[in-house]
Sequence to fold (184 residues):
Amino acid sequence: MWEGDSFCGLITLIINGPFSKCHAAIDPQCVPTVKCGCTYEGRSIPAGESFWADQGCRRRCTCVARSKRVECRDKACGAGQQCQVVDGIRKCQAVSHSTCKATGDPHYVTFDKRKFNFQGTCVYQLAALCSKDPELVPFEVLVQNDHRGSKVVSFTKLVEIKVYSLSIVITKTHKGLIMVRTIF
Fold:
């Protein structure tokens, strides 16, 4: 800890110190104590991060920033999930998957394999997260149709994907381009 008790350093800023060779790659900086994180079984855990403390995903822990303490509670994977290590991270992983799709002029098939045909020009929600589970990333996929010469037949005019505070738009009027936020 440096810069007083209200800050902690990522690496110590001593010009000729043991970490001086690292200063070019990692800029020494101070962060408010509430963002310093916790230590759990000798490992540094970033503030606010949650992790599984056991190999069977039965104990979920979180680094509480204000207290700099790790708080754990009993928890288990949900129905249809199993505890696995994916890309080096232990997590509850779905044991199966499902697909929805939109094809043609347009025909929709839902995750439960039901078929729908929407010929209107409304904005339709193709898929979205409906769970309140904080470990899942909220997303939404919207589709807008346009008439194809008559009100009986339509085609997909625009697809918008909302995820990670981004709006990604694919539109028929800008072939080969994708708009992110408001820029093509």
Observations:
- The chain has no helices and 17 strands.
